[in-house]
Amino acid sequence: MGLFDFAKDIGSKIFGNDAEAAEKITSHILANNPGIENLTAAYSDGTVTLVGEANTSEAAQKVVLMAGNVQGVTEVIPKISIAEAGIDTASALEPENVEYYIIQSGDSLSKIAKKYYQDANAYPRIFDANKEVIQDANLIYPGQKIRIPLA
User: Fold this and answer.
1) Which domains, from first to last, does the chain contain?
2) Cα–Cα dist 82/47, whole Å
3) pLDDT digits (tens, 9 = 90+) for 15-38
4) Pseudo-torsion of CA 62, 144, 120, 92, nearest 10°?
5) Whole-angstrom distance, CA of residue 96 vs CA of residue 119
6) Model pTM greater than 0.70?
7) Using CA atoms, how far apart are residues 96 and 104, in angstroms rounded to an integer?
8) How far is residue 35's CA from residue 30's CA, in Å, rounded to a whole number?
9) Rounded Cα gap, residues 6 and 89, in angstroms
């Protein structure tokens, strides 16, 4: 599962119409800023284009997930520069040591941790990797996309 595609009718409803979408998505990301500066978002017909400067590849991944897990968004196009030396944006956003997972009905972070780490008690690792995306470890919803650190 890649990072850039999302389910349109799933996620937090933070805007009422397309005219306010870009501003609301920008505010949503900056409210729990994972480490991005000079962020601007543009919204058109379900697609969000993000421009900014991320401190780390993890911050860039989280920004994409935060925008994509908004109701009405089907795709995120990141135009984010990443400060980490020697990292190009494509490999930083979809690295080999991270998998993206879509929450299914009946899932819990413990169940997902059991699947990926063979230990249900390792769920805090998933929560910590997604704390800007998941506000409460007990409140996840089907269709939500999260990061699973593998390394």
Assistant:
1) 18-93 (3.30.1340.30), 98-149 (3.10.350.10)
2) 21
3) 999 999 999 999 999 999 999 999
4) -30
5) 21
6) yes
7) 23
8) 9
9) 19
